[in-house]
Batch of 3 targets.
Target 1
Amino acid sequence: MNTPDPDQPSFPRAAQTSVRDARLRRNLTHATHTIRAKRAAAVAELPDWRRLRAAGAAIKDRTLRHLDHYLEELEASVTAAGGQVHWAVDAAEANRIVTRLVRETGEREVVKVKSMATQEIGLNAALERAGIHAYETDLAELIVQLGDDLPSHLLVPAIHRDRSQIRDIFRAHMGEWGRPAPEGLSDDPAELAEAARLHLREKFLRAKVGISGANFMVAETGTLVVVESEGNGRMCLTLPETLISVVGIEKTVPSWRDLEVFLQLLPRSSTAERMNPYTSTWTGTTGDDGPRAFHLVLLDNGRTDTLADRVGRQALRCIRCSACLNVCPVYERAGGHAYGSAYPGPIGAILTPQTRGTDSALDASLPYASTLCGACYEVCPVAIDIPDVLVHLRERVAEGGEFTRAGQRVRVRPARGHAAERAALRAAGWVLDRPYAVRAGQRLAARVRAVRPRRLPGPGAAWTDSRELPELPPESFRDWWRRTRGAEPAGDGGERPGDGGRGGAG
């Protein structure tokens, strides 16, 4: 199981630091608003987008229900095509497998395609500890690596950097990793791209081992698919003699016909393009073209445990498009680093606590890193109801209980600081379960409405720091109905203590 950095603060504490960075907020606002507007225009071109979205969700749900079958089919297909399949239960095992495979080649350098799975398991650090240097070849990932930084976005890892910062990073650090930046490098995008191209070309031509993830795996043929915009991925996938792909088990799709749906959904939702500039597919090895050896590392790392949760499992539909990040008001202000995970934004707030657990202060805080505005659900191309899962996980954090993790039942204590919340929810449950108590409370509130406080006391003060308490009406709906209609609203049982009824709140 991948574990959070013990020094990583909870989301609210980390966000307090990032929201004070005016440059960061300016960069994030400009980038997310630009991508958001382009995506909306690209999606609007398709009159059947909602049906396409529903089809994507249905395919994912069907695959997840029968994932054991499709994974066995995938393994058989990859093996028949000349590849080797390795199963990794957690991040540590995946890192051991990849490290062993690289060592067996005798190489000490690898080139990498942008991969969320390898970020998730901390592969670069694991390889470095084994004396193996991993070179990122995606432009944004290269910026992050040269700057000794961490990705802050699923699609654009260096979204928090502007052009002048990238120029300074190239000038200062590119020479430490290979070919230095050209003299007099400016912050012109064309010059920055050319500097990266020259720096990376020598690595592509020298590398004997490539490491990738995959956007999709087609079970019926054992084909892996990578979509990208720069062409660096295709260089990594075709030039090295050995290719190692680390892929989450949920990336499986049954057939090429299913893949067709996602190749329409993903480009428009991520880069606002009708199709990706580069869509690379490979099936095992051919002996004449491309790598001579292909290894597929199938990564669980908490996914099976997530699959067991009927509410939370929909997070495994995610195709990593990042549309939810680009519309999230919390992400726009806090940035990706505050989430303390390879998966920032709304999807990270539901995926990370399920795969890592909620034992740490950071992971227990992630389900609260949202306003529950629902914008993420509206743009999700596979209809993940992120707000619903967030509320579900908040309940888990507040109540604690037993959950499955890595095949074992573990006891999670209720999170500290939630005692008042739990007491309030229990009190609300007691009142809402008794209509006579609800009516009494409504009438009392109507009589004292003139002395309504502006701020809540105690723990509620933080809530009213940025919100106003709603105005109280002079009478409840039930009283208004009785006064104007002369009868109780339909469905009101009028229960009293001892009646044994459990009617609605009215």
Target 2
Amino acid sequence: MASSRWITVFAMLAMLTIAAAQPIDAQGLPKISLELGDAQNGGDAAVSLQIIFLLTILSLAPSILIMMTSFTRIVVVLSFLRQAIGTNGQMPPNQLIIGLALFLSFFVMAPVWERVNDDAIQPLIEDEIPYKEALDRGMEPIREFMMKQTRQKDMALFMRLARMPQPANRTEIPNSVLIPSFIISELKTSFQIGFILFIPFLIIDLVISSILLSMGMMMLPPIMVSLPFKILLFVLVDGWNLVVQSLVKSFN
């Protein structure tokens, strides 16, 4: 399937890394040269197109990582958590939120990448399977992960929008339908978790506001008083442990 070629970026990136990791001569570093010229045959042109294609894939790797893994749900929930605490986007900083979401995504997706490596990359390196079969095998664990996290309602929506017939099984669902269905399913799940995170902090805000109003301290912003109590509550219940644990278990 044509769309599966760019979707299996991680397998191709691994292949590119292996191809670049050739033995180095003991006399010095390998020589790298670039030149432009007329292709002598069809094979030369095909190799040039493959190199351009792989360079294009490298530029798309961050987007594919975000859209086809657990990163979307994790980073949205962590952003909701920061907003619920009320630190106005200053603490934790964006770099820390994105970094934590990235490494949590690596942790969640580790079994999937192991299957991709065992089923596709290693057999391809050992010349046991052809290139096209390796792409199909590498995509299968990723498709299974997305299928497991995607709601049938969201998938049916894109099937109707694409005017496609009802598939007989999951293997007939194209990636062009599966990927956007997975994304909106992840967004809905992350918003549901974010709503639950807001409730205890909202209660604290309401209590503090009522107390300040009853004391006649209407000029004092309630957020200045409630913020320390929300941070204290989050620390006492070991909030980071609970949030990370809930996020990781939500993918099981």
Target 3
Amino acid sequence: MQGQSLYNIYKRYNTLHSHVITALPIVILMPHSACNCRCVMCDIWKDNKNLKQLTEQDISGLLASLKKFGTQQVVMSGGEALLNTNFFRLCEILKKQGIKVSLLTTGLSIKSNADQLLKWVDDLIVSLDGDERLHDAIRNIPNAFKKLKEGVTHLKHVNPNYRITARTVIHRLNFRNWQAIINEAMLMGIDQVSFLPADVSSHAFNRQTAWSEPKQHEILIDEKELSELQEVIYDVIFNNKANFTNGFIAESPLKIQNIYHYYAAFYGINPFPYKKCNAPWVSTVIEADGSVRPCFFHDAIGNIRDNSLTDILNSNEAINFRKTLDMGTNATCVKCVCTLNLSPFAKL
């Protein structure tokens, strides 16, 4: 077991330095293209009529590559992955290969799927946008908060040790509600809460074209609001010292402060915060139509319905992309809001 562990560490180290994928600890799958929310900061739901989804055949076809690369964790993202009618069968296929399954979810159907979630999904990451009134407004769905809370409470009642974390996108509509979000997460019984700024400039989240300035500024914190954002951040850091220490808030105070710097960078006040990321070397994203991306924000490099994942990730095009990617100057990376930096020694 120890030898195998050392071998996996070597393969992960070799991938980072050779740019040839020999180890792929994390794979993000999008089982379903549609979503059951209509969030103001996301355009995925606008294309719900053009349904795409991954099949059992798609997942089974990935197994040889996942085994070769020693994949340890699959993160089910979306859209809303639970809308795929065969979702739990997809999880079963992966779990039987010893792969951990995590689910990113809106939380609307947790309670109705509780038994299957506890059986086939190792942990949940739920979206939390504010207190009840604000969460429902941002999700643009009535009773979204109530359904989320009922689902989390039910799972925790059945299995208090089942890990549920929350992820919050901080933006113009909810930054003033920041402390309330932390309070609601604690009351709900959530194990940890994480914060990141809103992506307003990329083609991700089903944006066929990048948002124009008027649309950006619905979500982008306005320059005249930056001083208020800074005050809110000061209060969050000051009032939650214990929550930073015990890890209930996933980020450090410095990373929370960088949310201010991220928004201030749009107005030339400071550079965009430096982000250390190796996502294209340690993970990949497979969308509901089979498209493969190096991460959420970069262009597709192939499709698993045309070629194996191994061949896609180690094509000349993909290797050259990783070899020449300069995250300090690449326009997509500079403005990225969601980074992954996994060392060869990191345990998932």
